[in-house]
Design a protein that fits this description.
Layout (H helix, E strand, L loop, with lengths): L1 E5 L4 E5 L9 E3 L5 E3 L9 E3 L98 E3 L5 E3 L5 E5 L4 E12 L2 E2 L1 E8 L2 E7 L8 E10 L2
Parallel strand pairs: 2-4, 3-5
Antiparallel strand pairs: 1-2, 6-7, 8-12, 9-10, 9-13, 11-12
Length: 224
C-alpha cells in the first residue's frame, strides 16, 4: 500500500511496507524525503544527511565521511575503531581494556581503583606521594613495597630496611647509630650517618626471603 502527496518544496512519502526492500535506495539529490514509519533496507542506503528521532539499527557497517553527532549514548557490542582522534569532553567508561600502540595523554588526573602495571620506567618531574603507613618491623604482604612510618619517613619493605630519627628543633645532633636484624639474626648495617638534624641507618638483608628491622638512635646535644 502506498500513498503519495506532492508539495512545492518537499516530497512527503508515507510508507507502509510488508516486506523489506530488496534493492538499494539512493537519495543523492537535494530533495527532502520524509518517511513516517519504518524504513527497512536489505541493501545499501546512500544519503547526504540522515536524521532520526529513534534508533538506527544496522547488521553491517555504517560509513560516514563526515561527523557522527549524537546527543545520547553510543553503544557497541564490538570494536569502535578510528584512524584519527577520538575526543571526549566527558568521561570514557570501559568494562574492558583500553589498548593503544602510542601514548595515552591526559591533562588531568589518571585515577585507578586497582594496580597500575608498567613494563618500563615510571618517571615524574614532581615528588612521589606515598600515603600508605606501615609500622617498622611488621611483615610485608609482598616484596619490594615502599611505605612510610608514622613520622612520614620512607621505609623500604624488603631487603634494605632503613630508619631515621630526628633531634628536637632546639637540639643539635652530635652522634648516633643503629642495628639491623632479621628473625634469624643480625644483618649488615651498610649506612649510619647524620642527615639534616637527625641520624639515618640503612640495612642489607641479602637474598634471604625475610623482612628486616632497622633500629636507629641519635645523640642530641641540648645547650642551656
Amino acid at each position: 500500500m502506498r500513498k503519495t502527496y506532492l508539495f512545492a518544496s518537499a516530497i512527503v512519502i508515507t510508507v507502509t511496507i510488508a516486506t523489506p526492500f530488496q534493492s538499494p535506495f539512493s537519495n543523492t539529490g537535494k530533495e527532502l524525503v520524509t518517511i513516517q514509519g519504518n524504513l527497512d533496507v536489505t541493501g545499501n542506503f546512500t544519503s547526504d544527511n540522515i536524521k532520526s528521532s529513534g534508533c538506527i539499527h544496522s547488521s553491517g557497517n555504517i560509513y560516514s565521511s563526515g561527523n557522527i553527532n549524537s546527543s545520547g549514548n553510543i553503544h557497541s557490542s564490538g570494536n569502535i575503531s578510528s584512524f584519527g582522534n577520538i575526543s571526549s569532553f566527558g568521561n570514557i567508561h570501559s568494562s574492558g581494556s583500553i589498548s593503544s600502540s602510542e601514548n595515552i595523554e591526559s591533562y588531568g588526573s589518571i585515577i585507578s581503583a586497582d594496580n597500575i602495571i608498567s613494563s618500563g620506567y615510571i618517571s615524574t618531574e614532581k615528588y612521589v606521594h606515598v600515603k600508605k603507613e606501615y609500622t617498622i618491623g611488621e611483615n610485608c604482604p609482598t616484596n619490594g613495597l615502599i611505605g612510610v612510618d608514622n613520622t612520614g619517613h620512607a621505609e623500604r619493605a624488603f631487603r634494605f630496611p632503613a630508619a631515621f630519627v630526628s633531634c628536637e628543633p632546639h637540639e643539635r645532633v652530635v652522634g648516633g647509630g643503629g642495628a639491623c636484624q632479621q628473625p634469624d639474626g643480625y644483618i649488615w648495617l651498610i649506612a649510619s650517618k647524620p642527615v639534616d638534624n637527625g641520624w639515618l641507618i640503612q640495612c642489607d638483608g641479602g637474598m634471604k626471603q625475610q623482612w628486616g628491622t632497622a633500629s636507629v638512635w641519635a645523640i642530641c646535644f641540648h645547650s642551656a
